[in-house]
Amino acid sequence: MNKTDLTIKFGNRMRELRKAKGLSQEDFADSCEFDRTYISGIERGTRNPTLKALEILANALDVSIESLFKGL
What we know:
Blueprint: H1 3-20, H2 25-32, H3 36-44, H4 51-61, H5 65-68
Helix pairs in contact: 1-3, 2-3
């Protein structure tokens, strides 16, 4: 698996979790205190979040960091 495959799979997983919570990208970005375009970039696989960002994303989705990577 190359980096691109992993970032795309992670983005799809994050989108799945966000939608399961019934959140728009904008509402989710606001809850994370990130720009909506950053969330969009993660979900499209063009952005690679830092470890700190992963912690913030997991907290905003109310899941463990491990859950963010489930099924990848």
